[in-house]
Amino acid sequence: MRELRGVFRLSFGDAGLQSRGFATRIVPPEEICATKELTPHDFDSRVSALAYGGVPAVAAMGFALGGCASEIPKEAASAFVQALSRLRGRSSADHVSDDDIAVLGVADGLSRIRDANDQVAELGAWVISLVDTEPHGDLWSARMRPLAADLLDDRGRLRSNPDTEGCDPLALEICLRRVWPSAFRRVGPPDDGQRRALMADLLSSDVPMPGELDRAAVWLAALWALVGEAAGALVPPIDDVVRALRATQGGLKRWVWEQKRGRRNTMPARWLIDDEPHVQALLWAALYPMFGAELRDEQYLPGYGQLQPRYDFGIANLKVIVEVKFLREKADFRRVEEEVGADLGIYFSDPERFDRIITYVYDDCDVHQPELYDGLRNALVQRDSRIVDVVFVRRPSMIPGRRERN
Asked: Which of 30, 99, 124, 309 lies at a 20 to 30 A Cα distance from 110?
């Protein structure tokens, strides 16, 4: 990555405006901020460049419009449309079609302002016609062309998988998917084998030569994406823990509660969840495949005096505690709030071990009261920043209510 950064920054100053705009669009913000020459949303200078910059300047403005996270200045959008309209009426319009990056940049900008007026729609139709009538299938960058057209009319040209022979096309596929994910929703991503092969190629191959900004940017962005995936697999982010806990509600869909005896006249199998230890057993089955040895089960923490606190689950590498609470009646909502508040002071006596908590609340009330969920969640989350979230899961419908159980 150090070599790629060197090539990227060395090549940036001498590259064409469309290549600089493309690089700014796909390379992660951390790299952009470290490169002083990059000004991704300096619309004033981009508007000035439109007066004399031709196709490269228009494409660069398109990438800037597409990547702008805030409200787009009206002057910038208007200047972009006017410059593109002038190009369309000149012989230089052929240069838009000849350059895959330029096509994508123009489409990126038009897709961002597609609802502006009829003139924008006409320009979009013109770009689509360039892509559909003059496909360029031999270059490593050819995947940008169907992406450009799909950004404008969403016809699904990207349904077919690209030719991923070689490092460049597959690295490009990774980058394009990261920046424009909705356009790729109809086609499956590169499989694990392809991603592993790409990772090996990026780490072992000679980096692009100085002056090859497009390839250097694609390689750098792809390596960022793959390293991020690898890091996430080693240490899943805490948001993944919250998502896994919430997903247990759907996982209860096929919970076992048989009404009749089995074929061998055995007792009906009924997985009763009747108290907190039962919920803990469910969560152990859900979390252990994700965290393995990092998942710690009911261990005592350093206490004070006669008090020895014991948490339900701890995920050591994330320094987070998962605490289970059980609701039997409406009054338990207040009890849970008081218990979690009391837990905070003792669970975090040693912040080097744990510094955050997720509360998992199992609702076993006979009368569910989901309108109280947000109140309890907000009360706890606002109480202490170390409370990451409060997850509520209802009793599966096949388990009888508390009054019906024998």
From this structure: 30
